[in-house]
């Protein structure tokens, strides 16, 4: 019952975020179309570290994969940040009133996974309208893992920043830098070893493999899962700290204020 109630509250908050819904419905397919149509189809050499092979991929197809990852990470990160930031005070009150925090956290994670799965399948289906991918399920799974990673990042930022504008700006800038540095169209040094430390490096490699190779990049998919797990763990730690009962003292002191003895003037 606790889990169902917490999940319903999370879904209602997401449904109220009309901007995010419009971004999914209109911005995502529009951005994917522009990424494909505006970039030349000239073949680009790309070293796929996931398999060690050198690929020759059409520039517009490769750019569309980067565009999909960029759009999905921003949208899901924005959605999770916005809802978590707006409901943080309410969550603290629920926790202080005795609502189990485990159910609050589990509901948020389940909603994040569900939203990311829907958006990832939607993005992959839109991409298949433009060109044929070698392994669409691998591509969809890669986009999904990138989405949940940035969703976890959004939740973490919502517990750390003081203003909504700061959080939105951070998600936007991190996603642009993350994807942009790995895009061989925008960065000719995209195969530099430095990119391997970026948050969605695993998803980028796996998505490219899903588009142009028959390889199943288990290692890079696992790497992306590690990023998601790490960010989720950090978010849980901060959430637990922010929602603890601060009226309880560590040294066994009573909750109420201690009376001071009256002294003569």
> What is the helix fraction of residues, given as a range?
55-70%
Strand content: under 5%
User: Within the largest sheet, what's the order of strands?
Assistant: 1-2
What ranges have pLDDT less than 50 throughout 5 or more consecutive residues?
Answer: 247-265
- Class of secondary structure makeup: mainly alpha
Which radius of gyration do the C-alpha atoms yield?
22 Å
Oligomer: single chain
**Count of helical segments?**
8
Number of strands: 2
Biggest β-sheet, characterized? 2 strands, antiparallel
Shape: elongated
Q: What's the average pLDDT? A: 85
Distance between the termini: 58 Å
Q: Secondary-structure element order, as H and E?
A: HHEEHHHHHH
């Amino acid at each position: 019952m606790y889990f169902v109630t917490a999940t319903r509250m999370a879904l209602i908050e997401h449904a109220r975020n009309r901007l995010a819904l419009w971004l999914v419905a209109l911005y995502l397919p529009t951005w994917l179309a522009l990424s494909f149509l505006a970039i030349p189809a000239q073949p680009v050499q790309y070293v796929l570290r996931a398999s060690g092979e050198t690929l020759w991929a059409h520039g517009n197809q490769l750019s569309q994969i980067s565009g999909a990852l960029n759009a999905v990470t921003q949208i899901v990160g924005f959605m999770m940040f916005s809802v978590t930031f707006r409901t943080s005070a309410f969550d603290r009150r629920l926790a202080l009133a005795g609502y189990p925090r485990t159910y609050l956290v589990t509901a948020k994670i389940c909603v994040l996974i569900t939203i990311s799965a829907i958006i990832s399948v939607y993005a992959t289906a839109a991409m298949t309208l433009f060109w044929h991918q070698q392994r669409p399920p691998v591509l969809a799974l890669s986009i999904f893992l990138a989405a949940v990673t940035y969703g976890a990042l959004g939740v973490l930022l919502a517990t750390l920043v003081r203003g909504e504008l700061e959080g939105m700006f951070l998600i936007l800038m991190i996603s642009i830098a993350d994807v942009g540095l790995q895009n061989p169209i925008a960065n000719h040094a995209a195969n530099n070893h430095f990119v391997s430390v970026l948050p969605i490096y695993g998803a980028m490699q796996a998505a490219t493999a899903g588009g142009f190779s028959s390889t199943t990049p288990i290692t890079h998919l696992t790497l992306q899962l590690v990023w998601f797990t790490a960010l989720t763990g950090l978010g849980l730690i901060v959430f637990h700290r922010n929602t603890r009962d601060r009226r309880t003292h560590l040294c066994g002191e009573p909750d109420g204020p201690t009376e001071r003895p009256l002294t003569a003037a």
